[in-house]
Amino acid sequence: MSDLEDLQRIAQRHLLEGGPLPGALGTALSPPVEERWGIYCEGYVLRLVASLATTYDGLAARLGREDFDRLARAFIAGHPSRFRSLRDYGAELAAFLRARANDAETRLQADLAAFEWHLASAFDAADVTAAGIGELAALAPEAWPSLRFRAVPGLGRLCTTTNAVAAWRAARAALEADPAAGPVPGPPATDTDPVEWLIIRPALETRFRSLPDDEAEALDRVLSGATFAELGEALAARHGENAALAAATWLKGWLTEGVLLRV
Amino acid sequence: MPAAPSPPRPLGFGVGLRPAHYAAILESAPAVDWFEVITENYLVGGGRPLHFLDAIRARYPIVMHGVSLSIGSTAPLDLDYIEGVRNLAARCEPEWVSDHLCWTGTDGINLHDLLPLPYTEEALAHVAPRVAEVQDRLGRRLVLENVSSYISYTASAMTEWEFLAELARRTDCRLLLDVNNVYVSSRNHGFDPRAFIDGIPTERVQQFHLAGHLDLGSHVIDTHDAPVCEAVWDLYAHALRRHGPVSTLLERDDHIPPLEELVAELDRARATATAALGVAA
Predict the structure, then answer these.
(1) Cβ separation A80–B109 shorter than 8 A
(2) How far is the CA of A242 from the CAs of A45, A141, A179, A219, A250, in angstroms?
(3) How far apart are CA B62 and CA B59, in angstroms?
(4) Gyration radius (Cα) of chain A, Å
């Protein structure tokens, strides 16, 4: 190992984990080297906290600055960045929160983090031209059974079991009135029946809506690679002779919304 | 070694492109000669970032300024990242591509800190071929910026400006002389900032940066959250007299004011250049 490699490994380990200060650092000036190196250590944490507060601004507003800062620092301690862009940092925050959740409020926070991560992922996902109704209408009828689709880039699917989206709406409204708002109490946290959500960004604006359970199941089948014919078969058990009509109705809606790409 | 070709024609006076100003730029066509974009903010698939980058690029020259190349790291170069930079450059056709002389992490971790290198022959021998490889992969010269620093290394055997000048000589790269960073580091390490400015070969200087900082008395922290201070304006005037008209960029990354405030501060840069050079820069 070269001296430079050794120095960088030791310095990085200290910055992430603390411990003895790298001996290669020196200064004869004030402030002492410990305080100087501390500027880097704190700068590292502050940048990641700021990045998380941007990605999860609804959660940050609900918690308020101090509680969000505490949460972010706990998360950062176990999750060093492996990304060139801070925009990509923090995907695991929802799982981190879910593992610690023990009441409706903390379950809401985990749902809210998952929801906001999907919003962030959709925000700058690749621009594509989604499959449209006109394109499919031009197909011969015999081509329909074998049609396959995949999700447009950035499409988000998640299931919430709390009123997290209502909390997000309250936080957004407060942030639009005052970007420094927080803590924003919003609606009290409540556990709910599972609600399925679809998030897409068909042009520049991100959109989301809840999905009825059977539509969510059908969409997930299509996104998993099921053909139109296979979708119809899967729906037959629940919808009987109306399965094909249900499949066609949903497909028309997804094509209008810009949810799918042809495979 | 043949003399380096002259840097391209100065772009004039620019500001860092920040999302808070997208609408104002497109609506008011401000008196800004060019914009510098943070490369990593646009290494994305699409959406609003690239939409506004394309729209603003159609009206103004652009320079790409990265923070994650980690040219000084002992970890292997991130070839996927460099490919992303190359593809973005192909899309927005920047006047040039810059990053920092620093390391930002190793072993797959990014500390998002611009950590200084020890100024040693070992570090030079490590960094120079990496700069050459990046330049080959990008198909263009790299422009490297001096960072603000708070620590130094006992192993350093040359000054930062000697290191930069020698790196530029070995690799034919260009330099982004951050006048605020020179000032911040000079206060933190007790050197003469004019010696730094004077120690950089003029033919290598592609760009100046100006920014604000936090002065704590015993030391200075580079925060980019305040207007440029008087001492940095004075040092900028010295840099202009030493290196001539050089593309100048005003940075603000926090406490971002309305665009018109930055444009007014940019006017001071113009006036400083006019006074220092005796003609309109």
Answers:
(1) yes
(2) 56, 18, 49, 17, 12
(3) 9
(4) 24
Bigger pLDDT: B161 or A180? B161
For chain A, what percent of residues have pLDDT higher than 90? 75
Number of A–B residue contacts, CB under 8 Å: 135
Is the CB of A2 less than 8 angstroms away from the CB of B188?
A: no
Domain that holds residue A67: 1-90
Nearest C-alpha in B relative to A126: B45
Q: Out of B40, B74, B108, name the one closest to residue A8 (CB).
A: B74
Total count of domains within chain A: 1
Superfamily (CATH) of domain B13-277: Divalent-metal-dependent TIM barrel enzymes (3.20.20.150)
For residue A199, tell me if it sits in a domain.
no
Tell me if A190 is assigned to some domain: no
Chain-chain contact of A124 with B221 (C-beta, under 8 angstroms):
no
pLDDT (average), residues B212-220: 94
Mutate to test the interface with A, among B74, B151, B152, B254 (most CBs of A within 10 A): B151
Helix ranges, chain A (H): 3-17, 33-55, 57-63, 65-78, 93-100, 104-123, 133-137, 164-177, 213-223, 228-239, 243-257
Is A14 within the bounds of a domain? yes
CA distances from A66 to A49, A69, A71, A92, A182 (A): 11, 5, 9, 21, 10
pLDDT tens-digit profile of A51-110?
Answer: 999 999 999 999 999 999 999 999 999 999 999 999 999 999 999 999 999 999 999 999
What residue ranges do the domains of chain B occupy?
13-277
